Amino acid sequence: MQEPVAISGPHFQVLALGKRIDFTHPTTGAKHTLTVQEYERKEMSREHFGSQNQEFPTHYTVMSYTLAPDLPDGAFTVTDCLLSLFLRSLNMGHN
Question: Which residues 6+ apart lie within 8 Å of 82 measured at CB?
Fold first, then answer.
């Protein structure tokens, strides 16, 4: 059996709830529609992170969506394509 391979799909921006993104499954040719149900920007307190030597991102976005027709668990993921969420080492007073 062949191992699953990640294949990049369409890039999109969410400007409003109900946004629909149509795409075609790369191996089956089936048409699917992702519909954004919730989209909210949030902030997490720095107290949730235990490291004193690194600064973690505190702003994040929560999105929920439906997919029609649905795909099996693990067959579809949505990821942020911006590379903006990096850990940053803190300079602990050393110059």
Answer: none
Q: Which residue shows structure tokens 């969420």?
A: 85
What angle (nearest 5°) sits at the alpha carbon of residue 73, between those of residues 67 and 78?
55
User: Rounded to whole angstroms, what are the CA distances from 16 to 11, 20, 54?
Assistant: 16, 10, 34
pLDDT digits (tens, 9 = 90+) for 17-36: 999 999 999 889 999 999 99
| DSSP 8-class letter at 42 | E
Claim: this prediction has a pTM higher than 0.90? no
The CA distances from residue 67 to 4, 15, 40, in Å, are: 20, 18, 19
Residue 70 contacts residue 34 (beta carbons within 8 Å): no
29: left (phi over 0), alpha (psi -120 to 50) or beta: left
Distance between terminal CA atoms of the chain?
54
